[in-house]
Amino acid sequence: DKGGSPGKTSAEALSGALDEARAKAVLADYGVPVNRGVVAPDAAAAGKAAAGLKAPFVVKVVSPDIVHKSDAGGVALNLGDAQAVEAAVAAMAARLAAGHPKAVIEGYLVQEMVSGELEMFVGARRDPLFGPVVMVGAGGVLVELLKDVAVRLAPVSPAEAREMLLGLRVAPLLKGFRGSAPLDLGALADAVSRVSWLAHDLGDRFGELDVNPVLVGKAGQGCTGVDARLLMN
Length: 233
Ligand code: ADP
Ligand code: MG
Fold this sequence. Notes:
The protein has helices at 20-29, 43-50, 82-99, 142-146, 158-166, 171-175, 185-202; strands spanning 17-18, 37-40, 57-62, 75-79, 107-112, 118-127, 131-138, 149-153, 206-216, 223-225, 228-232. The chain is of the alpha+beta class.
């Protein structure tokens, strides 16, 4: 039993490449935990936006031309206050103007910094033959290096997602390993199931979804998607 769809987003409302803030709104509709953030047009507005969020902050560039934000110098982590946010955006704008002069900058996403024990990747693709598949594996910068990924036809139940997780090479880290604390496997399995329903529900126009990383906390502390990208056909 896979349960029912938890979501309320319809495919009709979505088109093209959805940036981080828009993709996270769809994830939130499906009950996938994501961190809070606000898109601001410039440094001064970004500093003001921080007032409505909890420190420490993270700033990221919003640009359709910059997919790998950190490679482009478009991510600033661990900013302690509004002043630091404002300064980080000013420095980022100058860096991007020099390094990526042709990139259209739509704004700067100010968001809450999240702490976690492990970075995982959760995603979905459309297989031309089988339809939507859900994927989960070791995330962050390790995703390509480790190739530690489980793939299944969507949707999957939380119990099936748990089996996917237990088959990964990082499973010992999730379960607790040589004195390291067990992590929130249940929360991560729930998120994988919700992502699989999202891909299933969006139907033929669903292209691909990457949530990378999902930061996983200790058992009982949950998990949070801090970066996301959704492509609709
Ligand atoms: P990109 O993948 O486009 O380079 P990300 O948004 O994934 O950019 O940020 C790069 C890295 O910064 C992430 O893999 C993660 O380690 C860290 N990071 C990003 N946002 C947060 C956040 N809100 N809290 C904690 N760490 C973050
Ligand atoms: Mg990322």
